[in-house]
Structure formats: structure tokens, C-alpha cells
Amino acid sequence: MLRTILCFLLALGAMSPAARAEVYQPLSPWNIDYGETSCDLKRIFKGESGEIQIQISQAFDLQGGSFYIITQPNGKRPSWFADVNFSIDETGAKMEKNTGFQLNREENILIWQIYRFDLDYLEGLPDNVTLRLNTQKYPEIALRMTGMKAVSDAFRQCQRNLYETFGLDYRETEQLSRQLKPDTSPGGCVTSFDYPDIALRRGYQGKVWFMLNVDKEGKSQKCTILRSSGYPVLDDTTCETLLKRGRFVPALDKDGQPTPSIWTNAVLYSTAR
């Protein structure tokens, strides 16, 4: 599944929280950099208060994408959590996400990190709309989103790249009218509580790339390890857990009927705190 990371480098002037934000306009086209298992989309926006650089990084990670915003500090607390409300002026589409704030004193910046950002919220956007982000503590941020076809095309190319990495055929997936997607948050399928005790004691770490065959009812039927972590106990735990818990919204064929499909992704096992 497609997941996304957005990084905003902001230079914002002082603004009352109640004030309507200036809408930052695109200054450059989307710059797309494809990697083996991810890709980065970058763009610069400009307003009277300065420039904002956006980076959308699509990574194939079971924990989902993250949405990053980097701003000047507005307070001295080293870290805390709050909600960010996303809204689209022209369509009324809304989304709320919980955000972690982390103050970097050395660089004098504040990093917002929103876990498990829903890529579909951006991928389905019509062109030339205003995206607004609101929190209780920080001024509103408003961005004019254009060139969204380039974003959607890049997301699809990223998926093709992943399939090619593992020698899979993406043509059948491209013909689907709706892609397979997890019925619940992907990060809830395999959690830190599933880390095998023996692997923890011995310090085993690694990333397990897998493929799930999912039937037209959305149930996981088969798990294949595409790239091993190097430790059979981690590979086996991944497949056993996903087969037990993996539930999906079924894919639809070109006629709109539920159809079997596959899901590729990865689980990262790490002892780092």
C-alpha cells in the first residue's frame, strides 16, 4: 500500500491564531526522485512571509507514512502531542490526525510528525484547491495544491518500482478499478507486542518484506517472504501474524466486482527505543 511522508520547511511570520492564513502559491513544479522502494516529491511554495518546501515521500512500510512539518519554535516545551485538522476549501473534505511535536534546540526548529497519514486524502484531490492545516497552538497554514496528476502518476510509478524490485507483475494491479487496502490501520497488524521473546533476548533486528494473497472477501490466504530479515523467527512471525489478523477492503476488477489481489509491504523489527 501506498503510504506517504510530507515535510514542510516553513518560514512563517507572526499571526494571530484566529486570522485567516495567507495562501502560499507554488513557485516550482513537482520534482520527483524515484528510489528502489520509495520516491520523493518536492516542491517550493512562496508567500509574503517566505517560502515553504514540501516533500512527499512515499515509503512501503507497514507502519504507514508520516507527515512532517518543520517550523520555527513557538514555546519551550521539548515535546508534546496535539491534533491537526486538515480541510480542503473547495470540496469540504476533512481529516483529523494526532501529531507529535519535537523541539530541536540545536537547530532551533520545531518538528511536527503525523503518523499513518492517509495517502488517499491527497491522491484523490482535484487540481487547484486550497489545503488548510489548523492546530490550537500554531497559526493556520494554507497551500494552493496544483499539478495533482503528477502526484498521482508518481505514486503509481512508485508502486511499479516496488513490484519490479521483487520480480512481480504490476499489470494486473494497474487494471483494478480499486486497489486492495487494509480494513484497519496497517500498523495494528504487527506491533511491538508481537516481537518474539527469543529475538529480543538475542538482539535480532531487521526488515521483512512480504506479499499477501488476499481473496475477494478481503481475507489473507497466503503469505510469501519477498526479502528475508536474515532471521527465520522474524520472517515466520510476520507471516503468522498477518495471516491471523490481516483483513482488507477487497480490490475491485475493471467491472467493479470484488476480486482476489496481492498486497506487498514490510515490517521493521528494531530493539531501538
Question: Helix and strand layout, with pairings?
Answer:
Elements (H helix, E strand, L loop, with lengths): L4 E5 L13 E4 L4 E4 L3 E10 L2 E10 L5 E7 L7 E10 L5 E11 L4 E9 L1 H5 L5 E6 L6 E5 L2 H18 L5 H4 L6 E2 L14 H6 L3 E9 L5 E8 L4 H14 L2 E2 L1 E2 L5 E2 L1 E9 L4
Parallel strand pairs: 1-6, 2-11
Antiparallel strand pairs: 1-5, 2-4, 3-4, 4-5, 6-9, 7-8, 7-10, 8-9, 10-11, 12-15, 13-14, 13-18, 16-17
Describe the structure in your own words.
A ten-stranded mixed beta barrel has the order 1-5-4-2-11-10-7-8-9-6. The protein has a three-stranded antiparallel sheet with strand order 14-13-18, with helices on one face. A two-stranded antiparallel ribbon has the order 12-15. It contains five helices and 18 strands. The radius of gyration is 20 Å and the shape is globular. It has helices spanning 119-123, 148-165, 171-174, 197-202, 232-245, and strands spanning 5-9, 23-26, 31-34, 38-47, 50-59, 65-71, 79-88, 94-104, 109-117, 129-134, 141-145, 181-182, 206-214, 220-227, 248-249, 251-252, 258-259, 261-269. A hairpin with a 4-residue loop joins strand 8 (94-104) and strand 9. The chain is α+β, with helices and mostly antiparallel strands and 273 residues long.
